[in-house]
Amino acid sequence: MSDDNSVLEKFVSENDCNFDIDNVDFKTKEEILQECRKKFEDHTVSGLHTCLCCLRILTRDNILRKELTSEFFLSQLFKYAFEYNYNLEYSKTSLEALKSLSNIVFKEPCVIGPLKTMGFIKNVLESVDILIETEDNEKLLLCLKLLFLVTALDSASRQELMESNALRMLVRVVNMKRSNITDSNVSAEALKVVYNVLYSTRDEDITKELGDDIQNLVVMLRCILQDPVLDEFTNYALVR
């Protein structure tokens, strides 16, 4: 397969909205995956966003998604998901990497351990803190979805968040002004993470310390449920 960016662009244009990826020739998908691997290995900047779009599409394939759980691809996705640069192109690549990570964690929870070894929890929390200030709610929503998944699937992660300053930061997210559906979804996702973290705790010192914040969460939950721009809380789904 040619390493021309047009090959990857063609794959994205034909399959971006194709959620029945099994109807694409498997050899073609394998070649796309190898082309992306080559770009990563060559540290090619040109076409990086398109390459990450291809990986997001390939997460829909049950076989190739397992290839993406390898240390090589996980480390690449991790790198670009949490790389901060205010250049628009870098922001787009980061968004695509976060989407792929969300899909992989959702379907292949075995990656949680390796990701945590890379510093996953620390990087997600740092990202949330930055994104609250920059008001990049699309990316913030993806980071919160990742936290929701990890805290739902891994008890050690719940404990890790409990012992950090994460709960207070999540309360800040819930208290953010909501003016559209994305803002409301961000608040809802933050509440889901808080619920996961607090659900299994029996540490009275922590719950007492957070007493006022928890009461505020109850009030905020009532407000969100009455929010006209949010019909209902949506369950977690694949980031298409």
TrEMBL record:
InterPro entries: ARM-like, ARM-type_fold, Gua_nucleotide_exch_fac_Ric8. Signal peptide: none annotated. This is GBD/FH3 domain-containing protein. GO terms for cellular component: cytoplasm. It holds the Pfam family Ric8. Gene3D superfamilies: Leucine-rich Repeat Variant. The keyword Chaperone applies. Keywords: Chaperone, Guanine-nucleotide releasing factor. The lineage of its organism: Eukaryota, Metazoa, Spiralia, Lophotrochozoa, Platyhelminthes. GO terms for biological process: G protein-coupled receptor signaling pathway. PANTHER family: SYNEMBRYN (PTHR12425:SF5). The keyword Chaperone applies. Coiled coil: none annotated. One of its GO terms (molecular function) is guanyl-nucleotide exchange factor activity. Belongs to the synembryn family.
